[in-house]
Amino acid sequence: MSARGALRLGILISGRGSNMAAIAQDCRSGRLGAEVALVLSEQPAAAGLETARGLGLATRAIPWPGAAQRCEFEQEAAAALDAAGIELIVLAGFMRILSAEFVTARAGRILNIHPSLLPKFPGLHTHRRVLEAGERSHGATVHYVTPELDGGPRVLQARIAVRSADSEESLSARVQATEHIIYPKAIGWCAEGRLQWREERPWLDGAPLLTPVLEEFDA
Ligand code: GRF
Fold this sequence. Notes:
Rossmann fold, 2 domains, eight-stranded mixed sheet, three-stranded antiparallel sheet, 32% helix
């Protein structure tokens, strides 16, 4: 996406920010040709903001004003992202739903990570639902954000096996460990220009990406 230099990322968080930290560390080590130019949270007390400050990253808190005032939040967030020269918006545990207007105006410039093998289990409490459904595999998905919640084109997935002894907590931990690998990887593809958004869909290495790339993890 950016032949001029490191791809400028704006990471939106609501909580712990472990994905944000993994991405920032890969940027810092040079493994990822991108730069975290802003970490923005709608929760001023988010632990991830403290982590980001500890990593020397620019942070901004814009308290969530309530769903009825989402437009005000989005205007303020857009101004902050634009001022920081953000080229790619990275949702990493951002727990608010962005409006169709916000998302459509930035088509192909917002990624999200979701803790399931989408299109299975969109929404919340994925680990619990996977266990209740007796699924034999589970994982995480990096996808482009469109107005359909958790429904945008999928780019990269991590698959793990569900073990008979698994609990919500153990599944969550193993899925998160894969997220910290696949999210920086997909962002790296953007930074290298391998992953592009053209004709309203993702392209990888010059061809339309019709099915997501799948990585198997047996962690
Ligand atoms: C991750 O599991 C991600 O899939 C989901 O929210 C969680 C965020 O975790 N969207 P963290 O804040 O990055 O630690």
